[in-house]
Specification:
Blueprint (H helix, E strand, L loop, with lengths): L1 H33 L2 E8 L2 E8 L4 H16 L7 H6 L3 E3 L2 H16 L9 H6 L15 H4 L8 E4 L2 E4 L9 H18 L5 E5 L2 E5 L8 E6 L12 E7 L1 E8 L4 E4 L2 E4 L14 E8 L2 H14 L1 H11 L3 E5 L4 E3 L1 H4 L2 E2 L1
Amino acid sequence: MRNFAIVMKIYKNKVRLSFVAVLVVLLIAGCERAYQYQYKEGMVWNTVYHISYKGPASLGDSISVVLDSVGKSLSVFDPSSLVSRVNASDSTKVDAMFADVYSISRKVNEESGRRYDPTLSPLITAWGFGKGHKANTDTARIDSIMQFVGIEKTNLSDGILKKKDIRVQFNFSSVAKGYGCDAIARMFRRNGVTDYLIEIGGEIAVNGESPDRGKWRISVDRPIESADSEIHESQVLIEINSGGMATSGNYRNFHDLNGVRVGHTIDRLNGRPAHTDVASATVIADCSAEADAYATALMAMGYKDGRELAERKKMPVMIILHNGNVWMSDEFKKYVTK
């Protein structure tokens, strides 16, 4: 009887172990079924977003929450947003999102010789690219506006943004879309999602594998001027499995002022639309927000200064000139595929 009891105990243990093993297999299989690639798209901040990720479909609601949070902090088109309140005051307590983009903007401002600046909001409006304003001959008062432009006229300390002149106004449009990509990427990682591509208005954040189980393949458009419709012709195809990418150019966002074509990139040094030899600039960086800001800076700097910055910082950069010539840094060439 004693031997029989021992045998029965061993048998029960085996059954228990077998049950656990089967349960683990079923759980793994369930996870595999749940973690398929999901696709989300929509409109935000007057542009379109497309997102592909391998994870639960329920994260679609979290994507909307993240985008809403970024907009409430950084959107100049929302009169109740944090940046709108900052623009109306000389001293404002800011949140972590504002502090992040402020830090990035300050860094790129310094490294670009101040050619990049997020306090160009009054100039953007004056040249007809801001909310509710159309450029006209009165735009000649640019010199007076320049007196209260410059991120160096502000300071962020202990969570308080202070301005030396209350008229200083921020417009983070040149970094907010990239930051939105990064914010969604951080949400994904908190939820265990490591394979994703996030694109908002052309700015991109990627990580891990694509649905083809390889690197993400992204086409960079050739700059073709078109105000009526978007024409997509590939300039180059890259492969990437981590980081952020952004392309800046004036070939789709411009208008005519008294017979002169005016682009949306403003030169911080003279307050006027930047007229450089650069048609578009593409940057790959650790995060999409930095790539976004640097791409804008390169547009304003022009080819010579932009190339010097890219080589000095060993940045993956592609610059396409108006004459059709293309320059790629050695770091960028590593991403190019056939």
